[in-house]
Amino acid sequence: MNPVVVFFSHAGENFINGVSQKIPIGNTEVLAHNIAKKLNCPLIRLEEMEVYPENYEETVTRAEYEKKENKRVAYHKIEIDRTKIDTLFLGYPNWWGSYPKIIGSFLEDFPTEGLEIYPFCTHEGSAFGNSLHELKMQCPHAIVHCGLPVRGSRVERAEVAVENWLLAYK
Prior knowledge:
Elements: E1 3-7, E2 12-16, E3 19-23, H1 27-39, E4 43-45, H2 56-68, E5 87-93, H3 101-109, E6 116-123, H4 131-138, E7 143-144, E8 148-151, H5 159-169
Parallel strand pairs: 1-4, 1-5, 5-6, 6-7, 6-8
Antiparallel strand pairs: 2-3
Helix pairs in contact: 1-5
Protein name: Flavodoxin
InterPro entries: Flavodoxin/NO_synth, Flavoprotein-like_sf
Domain Flavodoxin-like: 28-155
């Protein structure tokens, strides 16, 4: 199999253990690096054209608006040769019960037919929310496998969870 890890993450203020805290690297990015290292595969970060605010409340407000209005979020072009990969490890924070709209925009642009997708997310109590269902709806011709939800506040201690989850892949 030829996997790739694609993720979106948000640094700055994040909601962790019930309070807003500044973090230099987003929780999903920490998790994505861990997974890519264990798989020894490419790691690609989705970066939005209009950067989300560092302020947590402002980001939450924007994410809510994007979801309610079903907005397409523009992102910087990434290079993935779909003919050379068969497995996508897809990472995102749970925003408003699903994946951020930038993930939806990426999936609209990326051919997923026949692709094996292993989703992973960070959250603070809501796990995947509706995102697995929405992922299956958006990628009906892909195989969406069991995902890995990790609390953002525990992402630095998720080593064993990642290893156990990857056993299903290997």
